[in-house]
């Protein structure tokens, strides 16, 4: 069981959820290699790119990112992504525990449109993620997302 009791985690989650707050992402990491306690590693206002830049190849982490999705200038919607990050340098035992811990983290970071599981920073293509968010959002008037 992952320990997500750090009050900073809940506070950062509420900041990202608040459209009036500039904070649009957060990153949770384990307190140490042997610990199952998660802590708020960082948060920011620079969107998906800044979030991805904050990921460490040697760490396992969880993230939460707010993105604005639009089909046109009149239909902008706020959507959230939940990220499970397993860097290339993560040890086997940590990877195994991560699959169990993800449900504990989702109990705290609970409102999101899509789940992104990544092992490499190249997997964060913002355009592809926005397409997935549009599809998850119901009505989609974007011709690029259809196979016409």
TrEMBL record:
Domain annotation ADF-H: ranges: 1-134
Keyword Cytoplasm among UniProt keywords: yes
Compartments, as annotated in UniProt: Cytoplasm, Cytoskeleton
Gene3D superfamilies according to UniProt: Severin (3.40.20.10)
Matching SUPFAM superfamilies: Actin depolymerizing proteins
A single GO BP: regulation of actin filament polymerization
Record InterPro entries: ADF-H, ADF-H/Gelsolin-like_dom_sf
GO MF entry, a single one: actin filament binding
GO CC terms of this entry: actin filament; cortical actin cytoskeleton; site of polarized growth
Sorted UniProt keywords: Actin-binding, Cytoplasm, Cytoskeleton
Family to which the UniProt record says this protein belongs: Belongs to the actin-binding proteins ADF family. Coactosin subfamily.
Name under which the protein is recorded: ADF-H domain-containing protein
Organism of this sequence: Glomus cerebriforme
């Amino acid at each position: 069981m992952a320990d997500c009791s750090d009050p900073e985690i809940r506070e950062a989650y509420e900041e990202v959820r608040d459209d009036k707050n500039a904070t649009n992402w957060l990153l949770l990491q384990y307190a140490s290699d042997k610990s199952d306690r998660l802590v708020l590693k960082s948060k920011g206002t620079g969107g998906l790119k800044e979030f991805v830049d904050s990921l460490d190849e040697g760490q396992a982490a969880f993230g939460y990112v707010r993105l604005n999705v639009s089909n046109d200038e009149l239909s902008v919607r706020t959507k959230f992504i939940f990220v499970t990050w397993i860097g290339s340098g993560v040890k086997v035992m940590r990877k195994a525990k991560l699959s169990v811990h993800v449900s504990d983290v989702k109990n705290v970071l609970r409102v999101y449109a899509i789940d992104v599981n990544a092992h490499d920073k190249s997997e964060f293509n913002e355009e592809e993620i926005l397409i997935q968010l549009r599809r998850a959002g119901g009505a989609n008037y974007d011709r690029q997302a259809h196979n016409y």
